[in-house]
Amino acid sequence: MKINPEECIGCDLCVPVCSVGAIYMEEDVAKVNEDECTECNACYRSEICPVDAFVSTPASEMPWPRVIRAVLSNPRVESPDTRVPGRGTEEVKTNEVSGRVKPGFAGLAVELGRPGVGTRMYDVQKVTMALAEMGAMFEPENPVTVWMTDKKTGKLRDDILNEKSLSAIVECGFPIGKFKAAIERLREVTKELNTVCSVVSAVKVAPDGSLATDPIYKELGITPRPNSKNNVGLGRPLFKFEEVK
Amino acid sequence: MTHTLHRQGSRESLSRDYPLVAVMAHGFNEKGGGPKLGRFLEICWKHGPVNLGDMKQGSIFTYDAEQIYKNVSDTTIVECVFDDLSKVEAVLRDLKKEDLGVPVVVSGLIDKVDECCKKVGLQIHTVAQSLGVWGKTELLPSKDILEITTMCGHAMVAANLVEKMIEDIKKGKTTPEKAAEKLAKPCECGIFNPTRAAELLAAAAAK
């Protein structure tokens, strides 16, 4: 994002609109710190500027690697790799049809930078590499997975490591028997981050209504939030689930 | 992913906050799904959500609801939010009867959503649970601000803007309702709950 200095009238209305504080005032005009800007376009879409001084570059015209900021930060930009708008995948949203999260298996998503702090990709790489050590099965349709040079080590492309986004989701899964160790490793590596992350697990509900992760969280002293995201099973055709060995 | 999860707040406040999301499954039932997703939104709209939107078009704070639900594409994600669980129950009853085959997610207090599903003969199939915020949490704004900003999972609602709205309410420059509408606008998906935001803004401004 840029602000045309010839158009800006210095009203400073746009300054609080930026989630990562990348807009600032200097010599009575608003400027964008392009290194901090995540290309989320929220300022442009807010229509806050009374003189239309924002200059927005479409994601299709952004050079590599800057374009990854828009893919991960602007919900209107569809990832060319996953074809899903937003920064992740369908995950549990379509599980009754896709069978992505199977019985005996726990999905794990670590969204770095959320809520509202933002992340550099080098912090994302710390998490991908730690979870790879634990045998993470990375979601192939997630953009972060696509940018790995080695899915066995979780190493990301070097040319994206300093890019900044509002958030980036590391999405993977583990057989339930390996899940506790993965969460413990995640706890350790998040202490090394220069940002925050919101952590999610996903499981298929057992026929008796229980969740396979409940005993693990009890053992680890983790209390999930009371508000969850619940697929209510209305999609068709239904996937035929089999146990993951 | 999970843009309707991680909403923060007390149980009492979250009991008036139920986002619904629908998306077709890529590679399974996506083809021809646009009109079905549109019908999903139309059903939701009939039951009075406080917000509604399409990730590729925007929310009712920018466009008319009818314009949104008549122009839904196969590959988008559509959303709405209710502040009353009985309305969610009515939507699920209609969806079950109509059998659109559209995967639907209801976010919110799990015990309440479970109860609601059982009343209409549905069972929760898969659950995503928030384990909270980890890492350098000292970078986060205050709890009052987070309860509002986390209602847009894509972080389009800036903490600084929420703070400004609270200050403007304190100075009498705006009302909690008008401020909540202003905050709802940047959330393109339509999952920001403006009625809950107005309650939270009023409470924060009264401190």
Descriptive report:
- Chain A is an alpha+beta fold and 245 residues long.
- Chain A folds into two domains: 2-56, Alpha-Beta Plaits; 78-220, no CATH class.
- Chain A has helices spanning 42-45, 67-73, 95-98, 121-133, 143-146, 176-190, 214-220; strands spanning 2-3, 23-26, 29-32, 54-55, 105-112, 119-120, 137-138, 148-150, 155-156, 164-165, 168-175, 196-204, 227-231.
- In chain A, strands 7-11-5-12 form a four-stranded antiparallel β-sheet. A two-stranded antiparallel ribbon of chain A has the order 1-4. Chain A has a two-stranded antiparallel sheet with strand order 2-3.
- In chain A, β2 and β3 form a beta hairpin.
- Chain A is elongated and about 65 Å long.
- Chain B has nine helices and six strands, in the order αβαββαβαβαβαααα.
- Chain B has a five-stranded antiparallel β-sheet with strand order 3-2-4-1-5.
- In chain B, a hairpin with a 3-residue loop joins β2 and β3 (58-59).
- In chain B, α7 crosses α9.
- The radius of gyration of chain B is 17 Å and the shape is globular.
- The termini of chain B are far apart.
- At the A-B interface, α3, β5, α6, β12 and β13 of A face α4, β5, α5, β6 and α7 of B.
- β13 (227-231) of chain A pairs antiparallel with β6 (126-135) of chain B, so a sheet runs across the interface.
What are its keywords?
heterodimer; A: 245 residues; alpha+beta; Alpha-Beta Plaits; 2 domains; 4-stranded antiparallel sheet; two-stranded antiparallel sheet; 22% helix; B: 207 residues; 6 strands; 42% helix; 16% strand
Quick structural summary:
The complex is a heterodimer of chains A (245) and B (207). Chain A is an alpha+beta fold. In chain A, 22% of the residues lie in helices and 22% in strands.
Task: Show the helix and strand layout.
The complex is a heterodimer of chains A (245) and B (207).
Chain A: E1 2-3, E2 23-26, E3 29-32, H1 42-45, E4 54-55, H2 67-73, H3 95-98, E5 105-112, E6 119-120, H4 121-133, E7 137-138, H5 143-146, E8 148-150, E9 155-156, E10 164-165, E11 168-175, H6 176-190, E12 196-204, H7 214-220, E13 227-231
Antiparallel strand pairs in A: 1-4, 2-3, 5-11, 5-12, 6-10, 7-11, 8-9
Helix pairs in contact in A: 4-6
Chain B: H1 11-14, E1 18-23, H2 34-46, E2 51-54, E3 58-59, H3 65-69, E4 77-82, H4 85-98, E5 104-109, H5 110-119, E6 126-135, H6 143-149, H7 159-170, H8 176-184, H9 194-205
Antiparallel strand pairs in B: 1-4, 1-5, 2-3, 2-4
